[in-house]
Design goal:
By secondary structure, the protein is α/β, with parallel strands linked by helices. It folds into 2 domains: about 5-160 and about 335-375, NAD(P)-binding Rossmann-like Domain (Rossmann fold), CATH 3.40.50; about 165-325 and about 375-410, Dihydrodipicolinate Reductase, domain 2. The chain is about 30% helix and about 25% strand. It has helices spanning about 10-15, 30-40, 60-70, 95-100, 115-125, 140-155, 165-175, 195-200, 210-225, 240-245, 340-355, 375-390; strands at about 5-10, 15-20, 20, 45-50, 80-85, 105-110, 130-135, 155-160, 180-190, 230-240, 255-265, 270-280, 290-295, 300-305, 310-315, 315-320, 395-400, 405-410. Helix 3 (about 60-70) links the parallel strand 4 (about 45-50) and strand 5 (about 80-85). Helix 5 (about 115-125) packs parallel to helix 6 (about 140-155) and helix 9 crosses helix 12 (about 375-390).
Length: about 400
């Protein structure tokens, strides 16, 4: 059963189109739109709609799609419905776009973090299934409201945590479950400071680098141990200077969260440290990504950015490459990225929506299969509490519980 899809957001991750040209990053052809165009060619997606605020961007985006996608891959149709009109600027265009969609359609939200809640609630209230770019929202209060709204309208609410589909990360998750009580994790993730130009309209205003990048590995840890341990305290520290000078706004360069965990059955304590930065220099990869995990009975580590695969070209120089996330190189003239984890993150959502719409499954059936709102609440708790700690000079902030159920971050 083909599913109609509306994408809200027209930035780099969706289109690869930034500042009137192809993005100067590893996503110059985008991710979301490319995957949906291919899913349509495979008969899984029907109508594709794209919504932004500034309709004047759409002629450039269409040209970009033709140049970067349809001319590069055989058999890819890049036609798309767009909202608002090409000569219109409308920050509320998503409301009109959602009203044009049929109940049961899928809505993919890739917009600044502080807009996720209102857009997702609008889509859910129109009985549409929702996939939201991480983080789902910035507060537990909003997160819990989305869970309840999804139940009320019997729709799927998922966070786009694509690292869950990375074969190395999913294997690490399964191995870690045999390593006994959680003891320690250290994660690091960065992007080059050139990305601050891409993120300049929202960086430090609507969100920070911890919400944007730390969310990946915090979610991974929740996926690993969330049914066996719970976060009970968070403290945060930040480094500043580069982003403030570059953007002229008061935002952090690098944020580190330190989280105290309690193993539920034994009461033993564990700690995790998560660092994210967006001031890294240009290097052999677009994003440094690695973590170390230790349980009472074993440990593991992954350098996700370096998998022993490198290239060097006259124009591009030396680079470590990762076609496991997205394979952009054509194979015999055709797009061949269907097996990548960047692709799988969206295909699994589309497949789940199709199954629900056909009556073969219920939204709750995917709580242990996909990163649903119900299965990612610890991540939001940690991110919000980290922000509270930063705003209170790095003081440790407790996370409060009622029995085993998460209630809210303490705002004392």
């Amino acid at each position: 059963m083909e599913t109609d899809i509306l994408v809200i957001g027209t930035g780099e991750y969706v289109t690869g189109f930034v500042g009137g040209a192809a993005a100067n990053s590893d996503k110059s052809a985008g991710v979301v739109a490319l995957v949906l165009f291919d899913l349509r060619s495979r008969g899984k997606v029907n109508q594709i709609s794209l919504c932004g605020q500034d309709g004047k961007r759409f002629p450039g985006i269409r040209h970009h799609f033709a140049e970067q996608i349809s001319s590069r891959y055989q058999g890819i149709d890049v036609s798309v419905h767009t909202f608002p009109d090409d000569n219109e600027y409308n920050p509320q265009a998503y409301q009109m776009a959602i009203e044009k969609m049929k109940p049961g359609s899928g809505v993919i939200i890739v917009t600044p973090d502080d807009t996720h809640f209102d857009i997702a609630m609008t889509a859910i209230s129109h009985k549409m299934h929702v996939l939201v770019a991480k983080p789902l929202v910035k507060t537990l209060e909003e997160h819990e409201k989305l869970i309840e709204a999804g139940k009320e309208h019997n729709v799927l609410v998922v966070v786009e945590m694509h690292k869950r589909f990375d074969p190395m990360y999913s294997d690490a998750r399964d191995r870690a479950r045999s390593y006994g009580d959680f003891s320690y994790m250290n994660s690091y993730m960065s992007q080059p400071r050139s990305q601050l130009n891409t993120f300049g309209k929202w960086a430090g205003r609507s969100s920070d680098i911890s919400y944007y990048l730390n969310s990946h590995h915090i979610d991974l840890l929740e996926w690993m141990i969330g049914d066996r341990a719970r976060p009970i305290q968070v403290s945060a520290l930040a480094a500043t200077g580069v982003a403030q000078k570059k953007l002229g706004i008061d935002t952090e360069d690098t944020i580190t969260l330190t989280v105290k965990w309690e193993n539920i059955e034994s009461g033993n304590l564990g700690i995790s440290i998560h660092t994210a930065s967006w001031i890294a220099p240009k290097s052999d990869v677009h994003s440094q990504q690695r973590f170390f995990y230790m349980g009472h009975q074993g440990e593991l580590q992954i350098d996700q950015a370096h998998r022993g695969y490198a290239t060097a070209t006259v124009l591009g120089g030396y680079a470590s490459i990762n076609p496991l996330f997205m394979k952009y190189e054509p194979s015999d003239g055709k797009f061949a990225g269907q097996g990548t984890y960047g692709y799988q993150s969206f295909e699994r959502f589309v497949d789940a929506v199709g199954s629900i719409n056909q009556g073969k499954a219920e939204p709750r059936d995917f709580d242990k299969i996909l990163p649903t709102a119900g299965g990612t609440i610890q991540t939001t708790a940690i991110l919000e509490t980290g922000r509270l700690s930063l705003d209170n000079g790095g003081l440790p902030i407790e996370i409060q519980y009622s029995s085993q159920e998460l209630l809210k971050a303490s705002k004392k």
